[in-house]
Write a structure and sequence with these properties.
The structure holds two protein chains of two kinds. The two termini of chain A are 41 Å apart. The longest helix of chain A is centred in the last third of the chain and has 19 residues. By secondary structure, chain A is an alpha/beta fold. In chain A, strands 1, 2, 3, 4, 5, 6 and 7 form a seven-stranded mixed beta sheet that branches. In chain A, strands 9-8-10-11-12-13-14 form a seven-stranded mixed beta sheet, sandwiched between helices. In chain A, 37% of the residues lie in helices and 21% in strands. Chain B is an all-alpha fold. Chain B has one domain: ABC transporter involved in vitamin B12 uptake, BtuC. A two-stranded antiparallel sheet of chain B has the order 1-2. Chain B is globular and about 65 Å long. The N and C termini of chain B lie far apart (43 Å). Classes of the chains: A alpha/beta, B mainly alpha. Chains A and B meet through α3, β9, α8, α9 and α10 of A and α1, α4, α9, α10 and α11 of B.
Chain lengths: 395, 306
């Protein structure tokens, strides 16, 4: 198992202005933040984006978060829950790391949560399983991205508003796939002409595409993460269905980790996200510009979530003056969410999940002929997730 | 309507089948002749896709990309054979599995270093991006037809190579009795390297041909490798003809099951249950096929010693 250590303090040397401005007082050891994320295998691009978004904040501040020097300890879970758990045990029990973040996938997070929550605070920058949003909510667990169902619910709501009466919905046959379609149906009021479940390792969708053509619905909704989505979108376009039957999905299938690989085949598809490249928020402009300058690619929603997680942690470090070991005080500071989110205003609900606006986006070509998302509308404003009512944390 | 759907789904199954054949052919030859289990065969497919996509992007020519993909597969296979596999011939299968699994990890990391973790772009050339009407009322993606043609051409070429040439004769002899071939003065080292290169070229070709249909990403080789192993077990280890029959059977079974099981089940069960049963049965159709073939013909459809 590999541990990538990034001594971000080192980057401060590259910023003489920051060094000169900083008072020369002995700060002792930097605060350590644990980042467990997926950096190998097919999900590696998502983890890399979360990591890069997070470390961008630290780099921009000359190796600091909330005014204090930090060290981000990055480890790769390889999308394996048992790996994630072993890393978490080492970070929390041996290295006494008190703030963790970074996990991409819900199954890894569910294995890690029992180890981390309590001795440390966990800020989720992606995974938002229902188990941690309802009765199982926890005062040391925060999700800065979304609850897993949110983006699916948003499309269900949007197509209902758009008067879609017949929808064909499709997802892989595994728990997150079934949850996704349940989330969609929670807000969709029209008829579901087919609810199709495909194999999680399926490569070819020709059979399903023929069924879609035969059913001739008014909209197709897919939840196919990563490579599955790329396969489907390419084959949907090749089958001549793009432009004939509108294709919808959550932002995961249509963001900057996927769009460069799909190209024109994704044009005209609709998707939901709590964030967009073109959101007219000053913090977002700064995020997109500095991200592109640093990494020479456009950020994805995952990168925006990593960036917000770092800003949120920074705000709590500043509020507690670096006393991140005082669990109650630190959690209370996180919960106030006093940070300039790339989404504009940001607040937590009673279950430490965001209450937020979810936008609809369309895949278009920008002025530089890159395939990107353009915001076209709003599906929800101040949306509260479906499990918040079951959480008994004090409001 | 049903007849048209049957035609379309059969074409889909055929297309998926020939794609599987291009990967399985090399795998079965390598196993049949050298008795090596090469788990890293999927890496050759991945290499073909990445090199093909890069060359296509640089030159703007998909044709050049296809040639480069096949060449990359052959070259990498040769390097793999010379550097690693050559040391494994005398070892048992467990050592081979361990070593070639290590190769998978190495190649996946290597691709990530060279191309980054995100999937990369490869599309069909514009003239092939649309659909053609194969029968009135059946629009079919033009590119998939090209895949079928290329796959069948690869099968014919391989059939000719194995069945009609001196090299093919040696390869066939090698699958049946390696020691005798060696005793007759054939340089077995050169023969093995050649077989590896042919298998690698086919896998590379499959990778780049799959690019416009599937995601070009790290780990793409392992997804298809599992099905390729099913194909060679169904077809009979070491037999190219078996790989062809097995690939078409697996391709058709997989596509037909997903296309027609939901319709069939809806006639028997209430809709919600029917969808669930069809989804679950559809996902195991290929493995059911393998189980049935193994029960009836444990050596596969075309065993090499028959």
């Amino acid at each position: 198992m590999t541990i990538h250590r990034r001594r971000l303090l080192g980057t401060a040397a590259a910023l003489p202005a920051a060094c000169l401005a900083a008072p020369a007082i002995a700060q002792g050891e930097p605060l350590r933040i644990g980042m467990i994320t997926t950096l190998s295998g097919p999900g590696a691009a998502l983890g890399a984006d979360i990591r890069d978004g997070f470390t961008l904040v630290v780099k921009n501040a000359g190796g600091r978060l909330g005014g204090l020097p930090v060290e981000v300890v990055v480890a790769d879970d390889g999308l394996r829950p048992e790996n994630g758990r072993a890393i978490a045990e080492r970070m929390v029990r041996r290295d006494r790391i008190q703030v963790l973040t970074g996990i991409v996938f819900s199954n890894v997070l569910l294995a890690v949560a029992p180890v981390v929550l309590g001795p440390a605070t966990y800020i989720s920058a992606n995974a938002g399983p229902s188990q941690l949003a309802g009765e199982g909510c926890h005062p040391s667990y925060f999700n800065v991205a979304w609850q897993n169902d949110n983006l699916h619910e948003a499309v269900g709501q949007y197509v209902t508003q758009a008067n879609v009466r017949r929808a064909f919905i499709l997802a892989p046959n595994y728990p997150a796939g079934r949850d996704a379609l349940t989330g969609f149906k929670r807000f969709y009021r029209g008829e579901v002409v087919s609810e199709t479940y495909t194999r999680l390792d399926q490569l070819d969708y020709a059979a399903e595409l023929a069924a879609i053509r035969a059913a001739n619905p008014e909209a197709v909704y897919i939840f196919l993460p990563g490579g599955l989505g790329i396969n489907f979108i390419k084959q949907y376009a090749a089958a001549g269905l793009r432009g004939r039957i509108p294709l919808y999905g959550p932002g995961f299938s249509f963001d900057q980790d996927v769009l460069p690989a799909v190209g024109d085949d994704a044009l005209g598809c609709f998707n939901s996200s709590q964030w967009a490249l073109d959101l007219p928020v000053p913090a977002n402009r700064q995020f997109v510009d500095t991200f592109e300058a640093e990494y020479r690619r456009l950020p994805s929603l995952y990168a925006s979530q990593g960036y917000d997680a770092a800003l949120l942690i920074g705000s709590a470090i500043a509020a507690t003056r670096g006393r991140i070991g005082d669990r109650d005080a630190f959690n209370a500071a996180v919960r106030r969410a006093e940070f300039p989110s790339v989404r504009g205003s940001f607040r937590f609900g009673n279950n430490n999940h965001p209450i937020q606006t979810i936008y609809m986006r369309e895949v278009v070509k920008d002025a530089r002929a890159r395939v990107v998302n353009r915001t076209i509308g709003t599906a929800f404003e101040n949306h509260v997730d479906a499990y918040a009512a079951q959480c008994r944390l004090p409001a | 309507m049903t007849a048209l759907l049957l035609v379309e789904q059969t074409l889909n199954g055929l297309q998926f089948g020939v794609m599987l054949f291009m990967i399985a052919a090399g795998l079965t030859l390598i196993f049949g002749i050298m008795d090596v289990i090469n788990l890293a065969h999927g890496s050759l497919y991945m290499a073909g896709a990445f090199v093909g996509a890069t060359v296509t992007a640089r030159t703007g020519s998909f044709g050049l990309g296809v040639l480069a993909g096949a060449a990359a597969g052959a070259l990498l296979a040769l390097v793999m054979e010379l550097a690693v596999i050559r040391r494994l011939y005398a070892r048992d299968h467990l050592d081979q599995v361990l070593a070639t699994y290590a190769l998978i990890l190495t190649f996946n990391e290597g691709v990530k270093v060279l191309w980054g973790p995100a999937p990369i772009f490869l599309a069909a050339p514009p003239p092939l991006a649309g659909t053609v009407e194969v029968l009135p009322g059946v629009p079919y993606p033009a590119y998939r037809l090209v895949v079928i043609v290329v796959g069948l051409a690869a099968a014919l070429f391989l059939g000719w190579l194995i069945g009609r040439t001196r090299l093919g004769m040696r390869i066939r002899a090698g699958t049946t009795n390696r020691e005798t071939v060696e005793a007759l003065g054939v340089d077995i080292g050169v023969l093995f390297a050649l077989v590896f290169a042919i298998g690698g070229a086919l896998a590379g070709l499959a990778g780049v041909m799959a690019g416009p249909v599937l995601a070009v990403q790290v780990g793409m080789g392992e997804q298809i490798l599992i099905l390729a192993f099913v194909v060679i077990v169904v077809g009979g280890l070491g037999s190219v003809r078996g790989a062809f029959a097995g690939a078409l059977l697996v391709g058709l079974a997989d596509t037909w099951a997903r296309a027609f099981l939901p319709v069939l089940m809806r006639g028997l069960l209430p809709p919600a249950a029917a969808d669930q049963v069809a989804a679950n049965l559809g996902s195991v159709a290929v493995y059911l096929l393998m189980a049935v073939v193994l029960a009836v013909r444990p050596q596969g459809l075309f065993p090499r010693h028959a």
